[in-house]
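Morning - 4HQ inputs below, output right after.
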Amino acid sequence: MGELEMVVDILTLFPEMFAGPFDASIIKRAREKGLVEINLINIRDFSWNKHRTVDDTPYGGGVGMVMAAGPLFEAMDWIRTRRGDPGRIILLCPAGRLFNQEVAAELAREKHLVLICGHYEGIDERVAEHLVTDEISIGDYVLTGGELPAMVVVDAVCRLIPGVLGESASAQEESFADGLLEYPHYTRPREYRGYRVPEVLLSGHHEKIRLWRRRQSLLRTLASRPDLLARASLTEEDRKILTSVLEELKS
Ligand SMILES: CN1CCN(C(=O)c2nonc2N)CC1
């Protein structure tokens, strides 16, 4: 068993939604290795009545129901008594900070995360104002709840935890830590329906292959995500490659 690197407590009304993604592949292996502990906590267990109610009608009128603050505050009290203060208490919501690799890396440095998955028309504002430390959005679209965003965050964060990906993949991760898009990947056969693998990848010339891959990453990033290129940590070699690419485009 590895050393426990991170505990993630997820407050949700639908713990059953997490069964698939967290019981397969990388997240499953990280849990089995003891690197990550993921606890699904049903918000209804902290309801104020025997009907396990967790929502109520909105003050000021309007359609729909609002998720009440009480059960969430009570659940946080319970978490604190069992494990102390979490590093982050994250509310998944469209208004939050846009989640990206940089945010994932920041969260991966924490030892204990709490993710709050909302539902209904929204959550009583006192949760955002007085309970959470961070609000995070996975993108500018409205989902039915916070569960899918929580899965995205857990997946992206857990894969950055030392030991989760294993040596080779984590080494590759380093090569993309500079924010460029990945180079194209190929595997057998060498030719499939007339589509051939680039010759350089069959050459066994490691330096040429490294250069080809780096050039492909730069080209792809320039073409598809120039915004990433502007923020990427480029080497002098990268700049030379980009200069030659731009000169080729001009000719
Ligand atoms: C109450 N519930 C509304 C829908 N929701 C999101 O659309 C969302 N969360 O994180 N990124 C997003 N986009 C989560 C919270």
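Note: The mean pLDDT is 94.

O.
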